[in-house]
Amino acid sequence: MAKNVLIFSTAYLPLIGGAELAVKEITDRLPEYRFFLITSRMNRQLPKSEKIGNVEVYRVGFGFSFDKYLLPIFGFLKAKSFLKANNFNLIWAIMASYGGIAAWLTKKFYQKVPFLLTLQEGDYSPDKKFGLAGLFLKKIVKSADYIQAISNYLKEEAIRAGARPEIIEIAPNGADLKKIQNSKFKIQNYKSRLKNELNIKEDEKIIITVSRLVEKNAVDATISALKILHQKYALNSIKFLIIGDGCLKQNLKKQAEDSGLKDSVIFLGAVPPEDVYQYLFISDVFVRPSRSEGLGSAFIEAMACGLPIIGTNVGGIPDFLKDRKTGLFCEIDNPENLAAKTKELLENKELREQIIQNGLKLVEEKYSWDKISTQMKNIFEKVESL
C-alpha cells in the first residue's frame, strides 16, 4: 500500500527553479509513495489541479503573482480537506517560505503528522529575511521534526535559527546522469548547426551561465569580466551564453550594449531543463560568480556535462568546488579576478582536463539523483517513525 506525503511548495512546475526540479527528480524515483502537492497558482493559465509525474498538484489562489502571499491560509485550508479524507505519513515543506508557513500552520493543528522541512534557499539567513516569510522563518525551522539541508551552509544557518543539530541531515541536489549521457550522444550530430544558429564561429570559445537574472547570481560581474577579456587580454573570440530569465534582464542587456558586447553576449531566456544540456555541451567554461548560494544545482549539472566551473567561496558552493581540483574560485564582485580565472581555464589545458575529470568523478560519487533519492527515502522513513 502506497504511503501518502503532503508537500507544500511556494511554486511548482512549470515554474522552474532548483527546488521545483529537485522535487520532480526525487518523487519520480519513489513510486512506493503517493505525493500530493499544494502550491500557489500565480498564473491563470495554470490548471487548479493536475498530475505531474508522480505528484498530484493542487494550486490555490486566483492566478496572480500575489497568490504566494495567500498560500499560508489557502494552503492550510486545502490541507485540512486532504487530512480529513486521507491518512498522511508526513508533511514535507520545500523551503522556509510561504509554502513553509502553510506547512507550519498545518503542523500546529495536526501535531501527530511528522513535519519534514527542506532548506533550498540561495539567500537564506534568519537575520536577513524580511516580510511575512521572514517573520515566520525561525518558527518554521524550530517546529520541524526533521530538516533536510542541501548544503553544509544551510545546515549551519538552520542551527543559527534555532534547529537542533541532531535533526538535520544533508542531502544535496543532483544531476540526472542517464539523461545527460543521452543528450551528449544526440548533440554530437548537430553541434556545428547549433553554433551556426547562435552565430558562433567554430574557433570561438564559449563561456556559459545558467542563472536566474537576479542580484545574487552576479551575471553583471561576468559581463564586466568579458569586457576585460576582450580589452586587456585581447581575447575577442569569446561568446557568453546566458540561460535564464529574471527581473534584471533589461539592465543586463543594456550593460552588454553599453560595454560594446552586444554581439558577444547572447541571452537565451528561459530554456526547458531537458534543452539546457545541449548548450552546456557546446560550451568551454561554466561561470557563476554568486554573491550568495544555497548550493548551486546549475554548477552540478555543468560538471556532469564535462565543463570546468568557476564560482565564489560562498554558501554551499565549497561543498563541491575545491579550488584547482574540481573548479576555480574567483573573488566576489571582482571582474578583473574572474577574467583572469576564465583566461586560465581557457589556456591551461592540463589544469582544465584535471578539473573536468575530478568534477565528473565527484558528481558520479555524490550528486546523482538516483543516489540522492535513495537517501531521501531513508529520510522519509526516519521522519515517519518519529
TrEMBL record:
One of its GO terms (molecular function) is glycosyltransferase activity. Residues 193-360 form the Glycosyl transferase family domain. InterPro entries: Glyco_trans_1, Glyco_trans_4-like_N, Glycosyltransferase_grp1. Transmembrane segments: none annotated. Residues 16-178 form the Glycosyltransferase subfamily 4-like N-terminal domain. This is Glycosyl transferase family 1 domain-containing protein.
